Amino acid sequence: MTLLVISPDYASHLFPLATLATAWRDARERVVVASGPATADIVASFGFERVNLQLGRGSNPGVIRAEDQPTGEDDALRGFFDATRIGMIETLSFQAQARSADLLWNPVETARAVQRIVREVDPQQIIVDHLAFSARLGLVSGRHRHADVVLGHPSALPVAGEVYGFPPRWPTAFHPDRRQMEELRTLCETVRDSFTEQWNAALAQLDPRAEPSTDAFAETGDLLFLNYPAELHDGSRTALLPPHAFIGSAVREEAPDAEVQTWLAESQTPVVYVSFGSFLSVRGDVLARVAEALRGLEVRAAIATGSSDPAELGEIPRDWLVRGFLPQVTLLGHSALAVSHGGNNSVTESMTAGVPMLLLPFSTDQFAGAAAVEDAGFGIALDPNTVTADELADAAGRLLALAEAGRDALDRLGTSLTGYPGARRAFDALALSTAGERLQP
Questions:
Q1: What is the pTM of this model?
Q2: Between helices 422-434 and 11-26, what is the axis angle to 10°?
Q3: pLDDT at residue 69 is higher than 60
Q4: CB 28 within 8 A of CB 428
Q5: CATH 3.40.50.150 holds for 258-418
Q6: Residue among 13, 182, 161, 199 nearest 93 (CA)
Q7: Which of 210, 225, 241, 271 is the most buried (most CB within 10 A)?
Q8: Which residues contact 423 (CB under 8 A, 6 or more apart)?
Q9: Would you say the CATH fold of 258-418 matches that of 2-248+421-434?
Q10: Which numeric CATH code is attached to 2-248+421-434?
Q11: Do the beta carbons of residue 413 and residue 218 sit within 8 Å?
C-alpha cells in the first residue's frame, strides 16, 4: 500500500504530517511526500520518498526570516511581524486581508499538479494539510478520497456560524474592544465570501459538475484529522464536526543532541523551556521580557531564540542554554514549565510531556487554543504586548508550584497521548475509513 502526504514547504507543517506517516513506514508501507524543496532534507530524514510540489510563494526549513523569502512574500512577512507589535486585532485583520494570496495560491495550476502526482504515485490513501487549499481543490475535483489534517486548534475549521479567522474564544487576559471585534468579524466574513468565490471559480474550471461551496474554509476531506486531544475540546462543538478523528498529538522523534544531554545532566534545578516557534521567534522584545522574568526564579532556562539575536535577551546566566534552535521534544521531556506563543506543535507536545504552559498568543487560532488550556487548568495565557516581566515571573512561579504539587489531570492526559500516539490513531482511523466503516463523532 502507498500513502501520499501533501504538505506546504514549511517545517512546522511537515514535521507533524511526517510524524503521522511514520505509522505507515513502521508497517512497511510505502510513503511518498509531496512538498517543496526547502523541506527536502526533512523528508529524507524520515526515510520517505519525495516528489516536488510547490503550494505557495514562501518556504521555511526551520526558522523563517523575511530576507530569505521571495519578493512579495518578504514584505508580507514584515507586515505580519509589524502587526503583532500593535495588537491582536491588527494582527488578525492583517492575516484576514492576506488570506487569499496565502491559502489559495495558483489554484487551478496547483490542483492539476496534484492530480498529476496522484496518477504517478497511485496512492491507496492520501493525507493533506487542511490549509493546502489549492492541493485539496485538486483532490476534490479529481474525486480522490483523502483525509485532511487540521494542525491548529480545532476552531481552525469553522462550524455553526463561526467565521474563519475570528476567534470563537479569548483567554481571560485579553479584552478586545467591541467595535473593533465587530469590524474584524465583518472583515472575516467579507474575506470568507471572496475566498469562497475564488474556490468555486477554480472548482468549476476543474470539474464543471462539482457542487459549489457555501464556505470554502469549512470544506473538509472524506475524513478530518484533528491534531489535538479530544479531552480539551468542547463536547457540544465536537458534535458539530464532520466525520473526524482526534489524533491527540504528532510528537516527532529527535536525533540525540550531545550538548543538550550534557546540559540536562549537569543539574537538578527545574528547567523552563522557552520558544516562540519558527515565525514568532522574531519577537525578541518579548523573549527578552521572559528572560528577565526567569532570571529572578530558581530555574535553568533553555531558550530557542530562532530569528532573534541572543544579545536581545540581556545578561545570560551561566547555567542557561541559549541557541537559535533547540530539540523541543527532548527538552519538554525534562521541563517543569514551557513558555511559548501557543502554536499547535508547542501546545500538543507540552501536553504529551505533561508540562504546564505559560502562553503568550499572537495570532490566528492561538487565542482559542490558549483559552482551552486555561479552561483545563493546564496553563496561564497573557498578552505578549502588554505583560510585564513581574507579571510573567508571577505566572511562571504559580505554574512551577503547580508542577511541584502534582497535576493529576495533565499527567493523565500525557499518559493517554503517549500510550496511544497520534501516528497510530491516524493509521487506525484511516484504515477504518478506507474500509468504509463510519467513524463515531
A1: 0.91
A2: 70
A3: no
A4: no
A5: no
A6: 182
A7: 225
A8: 19, 20, 21, 22, 23, 250
A9: yes
A10: 3.40.50.2000
A11: no
